[in-house]
Specification:
Elements lengths: L13 H31 L4 E4 L1 H8 L5 E6 L3 H8 L5 E3 L7 E6 L2 E7 L1 E4 L8 E4 L3 H6 L9 E4 L3 E3 L4 H7 L1 E2 L5 H7 L2 H13 L2 E2 L1 H10 L8 H12 L4 H11 L2 H4 L19 H14 L7 H9 L4 H4 L1 E2 L5 E2 L3 H15 L4 H13 L13 H11 L3 H10 L6 H25 L10 H8 L5 H17 L4 H16 L1
Parallel strand pairs: 2-5, 10-11
Antiparallel strand pairs: 1-2, 1-8, 3-4, 4-5, 6-7, 8-9, 12-13
Helix pairs in contact: 1-2, 6-8, 7-9, 7-10, 12-13, 12-18, 13-16, 13-18, 15-16, 17-19
GO molecular function: poly(A) RNA polymerase activity
Keywords: Magnesium, Metal-binding, Nucleotide-binding, Nucleotidyltransferase, Transferase, tRNA processing
Cofactor: Mg(2+)
Length: about 475
Amino acid sequence: MSNANNDSLTPPSTNELSQVQRRAVSELLRVSPVADDLARRFQEAGFTLALVGGSVRDALLGRLGNDLDFTTDARPDDVLKIVRPWADAVWEVGIAFGTVGCRKSDFEIEITTYRSEAYDRTSRKPEVSYGDSIEQDLVRRDFTVNAMAVALPEKEFIDPHNGLEDLAARVLRTPGTPEDSFSDDPLRMMRAARFAAQLDFEVAPEVVEAMTAMADRLQIVSAERVRDELNKLLLSENPRKGLRLLVDTGMADLVLPELPALRLESDEHHRHKDVYEHSLTVLEQAIDLEENGPDLVLRLAALLHDIGKPRTRRFEKDGRVSFHHHEVVGAKMTKARMTKLKYSNELIKDVSQLVELHLRFHGYGTGEWTDSAVRRYVRDAGPMLERLHKLTRSDCTTRNKRKANALSRAYDGLEERIARLQEQEELDSIRPDLDGNQIMEILAVGPGPQVGKAYKHLLELRLEHGPMGHDAAAAALKEWWAAQEA
């Protein structure tokens, strides 16, 4: 946990509050033209409108984007009548939950009718009922920092649960009791971990206590909602903080049990690296290597790359601990867990492939790989090659600087060799020197399994020896064909 927030539960100073308020005024002035215009339309129709929740929180933090959340006493059908003539586009995807979405200029807007929602003990979806006051709406919000509103167009600040003080103190509390809040929607427990990671906030002790006691309630939440919340946590600036909270409260036992399983027992006779801490460090080091913003595939692979270790751990006679083939076992476990969490087939394939390949580089040793081995490394990684580079480099967490520098130099050398071969041979699209039509013409055969076998043979030759040229490939093909007929 960050040392910056050790005093986060003490009351904020007047100066802290004034800084927060100044940031909010600046942010609200920026969005005022579109927000005030919309609010006047609601007023003319006899309804109220307020900026609410994450939008107010982010305005106070000085990080309000162009996604704006509003709440209103108007029912969804009335909202549609108001926004349709005004917005550039309107969508009704969330209308069953009282939410109408629209776009105006550069702003993405969601307008939700005052509501309350709760789960019963067996339901996977919240039951929605509409409320009549903004106070009633705010008390059902997840955390006090998200239970603030700004009534428009008059800019009246509404904060019945002291969210402003909690925001300045950087602490997450619930508007009512955490037990009531998490009973209403158990996913809020994961959201606490996500906000801790996103905003670098501390979670109040009574909230952590409730999360720990009620972790089992996550079982009624759909896999899709759990997955989406996990993704937001992983894509945050400080996922380690949120993941620790999931593990420490027992929520990870239900969401991602492979993660707490990495906390392998260690004893004085069988020493080995703390795989749990190692995995969190690899995740952070992979994040440091990202070049174009958060990369979910890389982050998932970094977090899961060693999940096969608990199942493959063996105590050797010489006192060492081995994890033979943990990358293969880990890839299968990754596929199984991501399938349960309803990830897309493409994402499952990419992450599993990285987990399976993450140890391949260590066969490179002292840089004695043949060109053939380098070609196969590139071929097997395919479009995941750049991510594999990052994952492999991130997987070095040794405190031995000499060893770390040696590994880094070895990987520098491998990347240089890949670059040279790519320049010479177009490694990104390795294929035989002859295509299927040329194979059939040379062998005087029609389509069939033999053409596939010939193609595979030529691909192996290409990987082993590099480009051969048409004539040499044709001669090699005829030689192979003669051996088949013998």
